[in-house]
Amino acid sequence: MKLMPAIVRVENLVKEFRTIERREGLLGALQDLFHPRYRTIRAVDGISFEVRAGEMVGYIGPNGAGKSTTIKMLTGILVPTAGTVTANGYVPWRDRAAYTATIGVVFGQRTQLWWDIAVIESFRLLKKIYNVSDADFRARLRYFDELLEVGRYLHTPVRKLSLGERMRCDVAAALLHNPPLVFLDEPTIGLDIVAKENIRSFLREVNQRYGTTILLTTHDLSDIEQLCNRLIIIDRGRLLFDGELTALRDQLWREQAIRVFLKDRDQADVLERLQVPGATCERLDALTYRLRFPRAERRVAEVIRAVVNAVEVRDIVIEEQSIEDVVRRVYLGEVLQEARR
User: Fold this and answer.
1) Which of 209, 224, 225, 270 fits as disulfide partner to 58, beta carbons 3.0 to 4.6 Å?
2) How many Cβ atoms are within 10 Å of 89's Cβ, its own excluded?
3) CA gap 7, 9 in Å, rounded
């Protein structure tokens, strides 16, 4: 497989903010006025990574981890305290006018559409800003309507749209000029299941058809599972993990589990007495049990064979560890050293 060139390079990126430490009471307010005390907060602390052309990368972390601050530096909104960023061949904050013509940005809680005018008028303004030809503009509107069904909203003022309808239009607006690089900050926040799937399907299609590079920040890990092969995790401004989603799960998924549905109550005593080396048996209800065992020591097939040879079952389900569970453990620092290897 041919390795694509890096479209984003981030090296030792640092962002610090200087804030006043407020004192309590009237006297404290006067002291703050004449003798303020400052504190420096390092929101991003020496992060380095690359994103290759055509990748869809999830960039995640708990609240306050530095995700949005990183995105704002990558889009040229903020100037870093230290470190370097190049994206699409530009330094975002230095070459901002030329650079912004080559990217698309969606901030889930803010719209880039004009609030009181119809959606189509916002699209026409963006068409002028990005110098999109008439033919390309018509073709992209047809494409957006086909995949996002934005046609029904074109003549509605943005303020009258629901959150899901507005997000469809915001995503379309960000991709109107067909940028090679797109930053999405919480694009599915607050959306229902149907609206989320519409956005995800559209992003997959754009990535596959045009090779659009997408950097996605989200708290909804279903977005990551469905869209991204690669995951970058940060916490307190520092990089915790950078690699494939499957590799993260393999590194941290130490335990396997199966759920056993018994045929009748007589089988319960037999199963509870069954000795499977390394496995623990947990009763969920009268006829349902969960067996847990170390992945490194026991194969699933071996445990299932031992169970069905000993008891009569109605069904057996292999339980996969969710990505939420894996990432939660990374956030908690339980397996930080292992994840970094």
Assistant:
1) 224
2) 10
3) 7
